[in-house]
Design goal:
Blueprint lengths: L2 H19 L4 H14 L11 H11 L3 E4 L4 H10 L7 E4 L4 H10 L8 E4 L2 E4 L3 H6 L3
Helix pairs in contact: 1-2
Length: about 140
């Protein structure tokens, strides 16, 4: 769990150091680093569920499952580009759920490549956000 927060904490610490070192533009630098910390934190993603729960829910409602991890730039890109549609998917944080990580490794030749989106039992690695949005209708 702590590993999800290492990069955001590094960003905040770097921003604080910049704010102290550069008194004139330090506040702007701190704000920029806090924004980066927020983007790389788990806070921008919808609430994660376990892989077992996501599979159960997906079997009932047919919604795709997104396996992700904090700090992954491709996961952040997918989340931001999905916008308000992101809440309609089932999100599984592979750093919190060993079963989710095992599911990702099973479809990616032993690698934990994310985002991996499972639609109707078929896994898609790093799909285009527009394609994922199209799977929701």
């Amino acid at each position: 769990m702590m590993r999800s927060w290492i990069l955001p904490l590094v960003f905040v610490a770097a921003g604080a150091i910049m704010a102290i070192a550069l008194p004139g533009s330090g506040v702007a630098m701190l704000a920029a680093f806090v924004l980066l910390a927020g983007l790389h934190s788990p806070l921008i993603f919808p609430r994660s569920v376990t892989a077992a729960e996501a599979r159960r829910r997906s079997a009932v409602d047919g919604r795709p499952i997104v396996y992700w991890r904090p700090g992954c730039k491709f996961c952040i890109r997918l989340r931001i580009r999905l916008g308000s549609h992101a809440g309609r998917l089932h999100w599984v944080n592979i750093w919190r759920d060993p079963d989710g990580a095992a599911d990702v490794r099973a479809v990616n030749d032993g690698n934990e490549t994310v985002p991996t989106v499972v639609v109707a039992g078929q896994a898609h690695v790093n799909p285009a956000p527009g394609w994922v949005r199209g799977q929701l209708s």
